[in-house]
Amino acid sequence: MQQFSLLVHTLGTATKTNEKLEALATYFTTAPTKDKVWVIALFSGRRPKRMASSGVLQQWCCALASIPDWLFLECYHTAGDLAETIALLLPPPTNTTHTHKHLHEYLEQIIDLQKADEAAKQAFVTQCWLQMNTDERFVFNKLLTGGFRIGVSQKMMVNALAKTMQIPASAIAHRISGNWNPATTTYENLLSAESVTTDFSKPYPFYLAYALEQTPETLGSPEEWQAEWKWDGIRGQLIKRNNELFVWSRGEELMTDKFPEYQALLDKLPNGIVLDGEIIPAINGKPLPFAILQTRIGRKNISKKQLQDAPIAFFAYDLLEHEAQDIRHLPLAQRRLLMENIIANAQHPTLQISPVIPFTNWQSLVQTRTQSRAMLAEGLMLKRKSAPYQVGRKVGDWWKWKIDALTIDAVLIYAQKGHGRRSNLYTDYTFAVKDGDKLVSFTKAYSGLTDKEFNEVDAFVKRNAIEKFGPVRTVKPELVFEIAFEGIAASNRHKSGVALRFPRMHRWRKDKKADEINTLQDLKNLLLTYGK
Amino acid sequence: MPKANTTPLISFTNRGLYCSAGDFYIDPWRPVDKAVITHAHSDHAKNGNKQYLCHHFTKPLLEARLGNNHYQSIGWNEVVRINGVSISLHPAGHMIGSSQIRVSHQDEVWVVSGDYKTENDGISGAFEPIRCNTFITESTFGLPIYNWLPQHDMYTQIQQWVQNNKAKKTTSILFAYSLGKAQRLLQALAMFNEPIYLHGAIWNMQMALAATGIAFPQVERITPETLREKLKGAIVIAPPGAEGTSWMKKMEPYSTAVCSGWMQVRGNARRRNTDMGFALSDHADWKGLLAAITSTGAEKVFVTHGFQSALSRYLNEQGIWSAEVKTAYGNGEEENENANSATDAINTTITTQQ
């Protein structure tokens, strides 16, 4: 555990990528193998089910620290991290002479206790807390609360493993993907070449596009490129192997059970295929807004009505495996032909081909791109016809060419402190538009400003806070921001009647006063034009 | 006069803390006739007042920062009377010269803490608890997540970090506020028995402090003429405003550390993008605040700059009458974690340096 705690500490404080890589590589060379498997799991978003809720952990901590709940929450909103808040609030350790356990032993105990009664859980957690220093408590709390976002990306971990194992990073990425249980998988099996063939559900690492910042002419001759719509859904892989169907999201979440409509494809598709595409709601091949998909995400039980109102389809645009062979090395043009064949044979409304947009010169494509919103697309994708399917985000062969965002000028009215590296800094804002002489809140936004701008707004909030509602401060409505967003939909959950997609602060309009912001009517007009 | 009975000894005005019976202000943020100053940090000691009353050690610092003014300085526990009100200064332990201000009139005693820390750092004077009816306390680190390690342990960590850098022939750059924190670092690093290199802003303050007679290790100012060779593996102290500027180039390869109470929380340290964060503070931590407040025996506690709402609510729940007070303090040195270039003094020095 100490070794892992040291690793987390180094990863959290190192300012250079090389230092982090070095720390990971050292860890993977020297740590006990059972611990290593868990670290791979934790850093790729796989974690044991929580054995105690945040609320319960908070109670246990308050009892030990003798502080009231409200004070705990004040601390939490300032520190911006639950695990750390608890680590800092607990009284000093009373028993530091205990024998140190390994990371996997703690995790095994956490899993064993999942079904135990609360008293047993509390006894275990309390005992651990009182044996640990602040750094160890922080790491232990992270194991309890999940979510290891501590300044290391999955890509970095893959690179470190590649370095220690002398295996290409793309192969590592593939082997550690998909459905495996760190409690039962050994390090050797996980990273062996066989892991890819024994797990029928295993997806391939996704190939990700960069945003096209220049004009498309810079890409060269139009004949070398294939254009498609950039759909606004969930990127996914649809797999059929061994007479079983699996659907993975890009976040490596197995979503097969969430979308029962895909089961209809089981008999229609051949074995040994992996399709890459977009999970989107659609009726008769016509996409529906993302907001409809949101009504399906996170639901365990899906009603008949939902299946009717928000039917989910798969818009395929690539084929990664064919006849049980990895064909990612083939050029896109060839993969595309094989894919179109499969889909044509399946003949099912749930499985659509993401069409290729014909174009002969870049200028006509510029025209087509302006139609994106009407197609419920975010813009265009440009893919080099001769390119293989690569691993991760790589420059050169795939580009996303998004349409310009919609924008609206709004005034900041509420602020709340952020999390992680934004701890104790007001970075989470709520914005309002005008409605007569009233202000109506319509969106939150947390991103888009530079650190320097955030500092400035933070200082403004601290000086101009009017009222306090728990962690939220109401602020003098003075600062105007241009809010950019990708889409707009009607919503009865918000006072304004609209919900925005991907809202962020595009620009701080220091040149504008609060009475020059947009109105609720402006927002409703946008809804009428784009909110279909 | 009935009016005098209802007017509190110290009231909170838009110029600062005001004692109407004595007709003077404490740490005013707008110009007044008579100002009693707790300490030399820029948010507590402003320019433009006609008369200043402060501790002997504070006077040279005010002269360096604010130029020539009418200054009167006194020692700790020395009583001065202004319009029949007794005033005395008592060590606050925050920085050199920093004082709590005891104000008494008829049977009533108020104490204004200014900024303070309860641990004796060996150079700022040991915080002295003063019995009073009403205590006005700061609350910069007024949440229980802020609990400092003993100074000795923190110094050991800093020394080890410097030692590791030396082994790698890397320069150690420590970012610290020029008044207060920088002097504590000098004290912490004296054991290396070598000259410590200072940024001009800190050098200026160090020169001003010579008048106090407090002993510091040998220091050298970094100037454009300072040779690169001399800085290799050396110890450098610079104000936060110098962080990330081209001024640092000459010290390459270097490792940086920020020394501030805010480094207690990982997120803050990550945001600063520093190699190391040491939670070394010149303010009282949560336990220190509570201990100080309790030891005054005050019936009423006003809480200023920091986490005033949390501390005030907590005190009320503990049976101590308390209210929060809005002041203009907390925009100066350590209180404002996000102001990299806190004082104007630092800014001007940096610009004139380059």
TrEMBL record, chain A:
It holds the Pfam family DNA_ligase_A_C. CDD domains: Adenylation_DNA_ligase_Bac1, OBF_DNA_ligase_Arch_LigB. GO terms for molecular function: ATP binding; DNA binding; DNA ligase (ATP) activity; metal ion binding. It comes from the Bacteria. Transmembrane segments: none annotated. PROSITE patterns: DNA_LIGASE_A1 (PS00697), DNA_LIGASE_A3 (PS50160). Residues 305-435 form the ATP-dependent DNA ligase family profile domain. Its EC number is 6.5.1.1. Gene3D superfamilies: DNA ligase, ATP-dependent, N-terminal domain, DNA ligase/mRNA capping enzyme, Nucleic acid-binding proteins. Keywords: ATP-binding, Cell cycle, Cell division, DNA damage, DNA recombination, DNA repair, DNA replication, Ligase, Magnesium, Metal-binding, Nucleotide-binding. It catalyses: ATP + (deoxyribonucleotide)n-3'-hydroxyl + 5'-phospho-(deoxyribonucleotide)m = (deoxyribonucleotide)n+m + AMP + diphosphate. This is DNA ligase (ATP). It comes from Limnovirga soli.
From TrEMBL, chain B:
This is Ligase-associated DNA damage response exonuclease. Transmembrane segments: none annotated. Keywords: Exonuclease, Hydrolase, Ligase, Nuclease. One of its GO terms (molecular function) is ligase activity. InterPro entries: MBL, RibonucZ/Hydroxyglut_hydro, Xnuc_lig_assoc. It comes from the Bacteria. The keyword tRNA processing does not apply. PANTHER family: BLL1145 PROTEIN, CLEAVAGE AND POLYADENYLATION SPECIFICITY FACTOR FAMILY MEMBER. It is an enzyme of class 3 (hydrolase). Its EC number is 3.1.-.-. It comes from Limnovirga soli.
